[in-house]
Amino acid sequence: GKKLICVLFFSQLSRVVGAAKNETPQSRTFIRGIQTVTLIPGDGIGPEISNAVMKIFEAAKAPIRWEERNVTAIRGPGGKWMIPPDAKESMDKNKIGLKGPLKTPIAAGHPSMNLLLRKTFDLYANVRPCVSIEGYQTPYTDVNLVTIRENTEGEYSGIEHVIVDGVVQSIKLITEQASKRIAEYAFEYARNNQRASVTAVHKANIMRMSDGLFLRKCREAAEKYKDVKFTEMYLDTVCLNMVQDPTQFDVLVMPNLYGDILSDLCAGLIGGLGVTPSGNIGANGVAIFESVHGTAPDIAGKDLANPTALLLSAVMMLRHMGLHGHAKKIETACFDTIRDRKVLTKDLGGNSKCSEFTEAICQRMKDMD
Amino acid sequence: MAAHSAVLSASKIINPFWVGRLGNTAKVFGTTLISHRNKTSLTGENIPPPAKYGGRHTVTLIPGDGIGPELLNHVREVFRFTCVPVDFEVVNVNSALETDDDMNNAITAIRRNGVALKGNIETKHTLPASVKSRNNVLRTSLDLYANVMHCQSLPGVQTRHKNIDIMIIRENTEGEYSSLEHESVSGVVESLKIITRNNSLRIADYAFKLARERGRRRVTAVHKANIMKLGDGLFLQCCREVASGYPEITFDSMIVDNTTMQLVSKPQQFDVMVMPNLYGNVVSNVCAGLVGGPGLVPGANYGHVYAVFETATRNTGKSIAEKNIANPTAMLLASCLMLDHLKLNDYASVIRNAVLTTMNETRLHTADLGGQGTTLEVVQSVMRVIQSKGQFTAEL
User: Fold this and answer.
1) Quick one: signal sequence residues (chain A) (predicted)?
2) A278 φ, ψ (degrees, to nearest 5)
3) Percentage with pLDDT > 70 across chain A
């Protein structure tokens, strides 16, 4: 009798303790009210579009506090390149980050900043939702798909050798662990975002072992998520069908190189990198959302930049954090402004300034309240 | 051949860890050296295989799987109707896991005849890695190093983009399709992508020669050399070297992900494109989709000695096989390319014009183009057009 009560009490206690330990970002927000997010403005047009996003978030009354950090590569002890320790600390604490474009100086001696960030936080999944934007006309309408790309291995392992003079070998690495991780993330994402199907993209007819392994892991993950439909398709068939009818695709999961090509292809369908959001999911709950366009040094500081890509990435971030209401509000204001076609930046076909575009969105949100 | 033995002796010096891999690499490397011995000439100066008995050519025909057999039957019908002096030697290659005998027979037949027309052979990727893709084996055994695809917007086909005219030249034997894979540790698979100087120079040379022949202004190399610095870097370097010998042709390069983005927004900017194997796969499929789909574009695989013609996107079309809905245009145009290769240009023009007339004027479209026509109707329309032009024909 007494022993049974003790056992029951402890099991209840451990459940409560366990729940508190696994606190999700949602519960953290709920407890504290304001969520702190690391903001990396970046280079070139980075600072001005980051300011635009901060202004819009303020107008939307989003419960976000920004912690600005810089990420220029520094030489750590032992000579290894790394990101500044205060940036790393901030990200490890906050878990969520928003990043503008970073420049990679040529012959600086250090690897690209994006690569450094990826390695530091083990950002294994690159997620790009591609949705057609009403008001920004492209030959393709009704695009609504998500590309999920494995971001740590594959063809970008960086392992190359000169075998003999004139013969070069590049190694594409596919591991069971990484494939399993990305496959499960893809299905998890599909489930959490009410997506109906996941398609694995591969070339297992040619690369039987490597893509075969990737495919096997996807199939295994599919078994665990019976509520999501799973299909497989060759890379060339996907490309062929994508440019004819992109509406047939939902969530696509694939290894690194195919992901690189397909995610840019899909960005092209909706209007380019200036309007495409992107998120990088890492181990230990870290997630960094970013704009994927360049630093545009020629228009930097001239109030001409288009903050849409960074803004939509920030909206993606809000959804990841469970703040769906604020996400919807900001996204609607942004899309309505573009659809209206009265205040648009130059790349969207208008001639307004970045600040005017930002103000138009803020005004819309105030009118919504 | 000195280099070949150098590779093998080098492999003994280098860490035994690499020996197995080097051996395989030497095999890939070796075939290019052998083929240089039989160097005839490129592109326009192709010496066609000698016409055999009675002035008729013999061409190997590989029906393949899916829609291959039915479409090739239609090609044979059209040839018979137009009295084309070509006989087909049919070699069936079964996609089932059997011996390699039928594949060897096919390769021997093509070596004998010099030219082939083929459908796609299905690769069941559930089979173990030792069973290689038969299409790939065919290409590498015959050293068909250049895959050429010409994508043109057709006036009779509704597409989102207009005025596309792109020639895609894709390296066809090495790169990611080297089929060299191994599992070094359980759960870790390595796949080798091989880029060689010889093959890169060869394909770049082919691309520029073709561009010059056809009066094209610009050649774009597609690569990912910012990430694969040695591999794609070597490819790019070879292209630049060859480009310096063709001052009248502009040469530029573009990274593959940017290329696909540009293709879906502004495809008219591209003229001739040259690239390694995998990017060629992606870009050719994107371009085929842009001009109207897999049923429209023919493809050709050229080597120094042999040539094999097929549809550009190499689809098996299992789901539409034997339903009389497949689009015969691509296969018919591929057979016209073959006739051009055999220097039977008159017959090629007649059939090609008939196919394009059916496509653009009578607008008889199959389901993939949004029409209601069946394969048979399209073929019959082609034959009627041929007859109406006054060509000497057999019975309809």
Assistant:
1) 1-19
2) -155, 145
3) 90
CA angle B192, B193, B199 (to 5 degrees): 135
Q: What is the pLDDT of residues A167-201, one digit of tens each?
A: 999 999 999 999 999 999 999 999 999 999 999 99
Lowest mean pLDDT among A113-122, B138-147, B331-340: A113-122
pLDDT grade for B97, boundaries at 50, 70 and 90: low
Name the residue with tokens 């309007």: A275
**Residue A4: per-residue pLDDT:** 60
Average pLDDT over residues B235-255: 96
Please give the model's pTM, rounded to 2 decimal places.
0.86
Residue B312: CB atoms within 10 Å: 25
Return the DSSP state at A228: S
- What is the least distance, in Å, from the CA of A334 to any CA of chain B? 23
**So what's the pLDDT on residue A170?**
93
* Residue of chain A minimizing CA distance to B127: A208
Interface of A with B in 109-128 (CB under 8 A): none
Q: What DSSP line would sit under B162-174, residue for residue?
A: ---EEEEEEE-SS
Residue in chain B nearest A263 by alpha carbon: B257
Report the distance separating Cα A292 and Cα A272, nearest Å.
Answer: 10
Q: Quick one: A367 exposed, middle or buried, by C-beta within 10 A (0-12, 13-18, 19+)?
A: exposed
The alpha-carbon gap from A305 to the nearest alpha carbon of chain B, in Å, equals: 21
Of residues A164, A204, A239, nearest to B6 (C-beta): A164
Q: What is the pLDDT of residue B5?
A: 44
d(CA A262, CA A254): 9
Residue B254: strand pairing partners: B222
Amino acid at position B234, single letter: L
Q: CA-to-CA distance for A86 and B383, rounded, in angstroms? A: 76
User: What value of ipTM does the predicted structure carry?
Assistant: 0.86
Q: A218 and chain B: CB distance < 8 Å anywhere?
A: no
B2 touches chain A (CB under 8 A): no
Which residues neighbour A263 within 8 Å (Cβ) at sequence distance 6 or greater?
A126, A128, A130, A147, A149, A278, B257
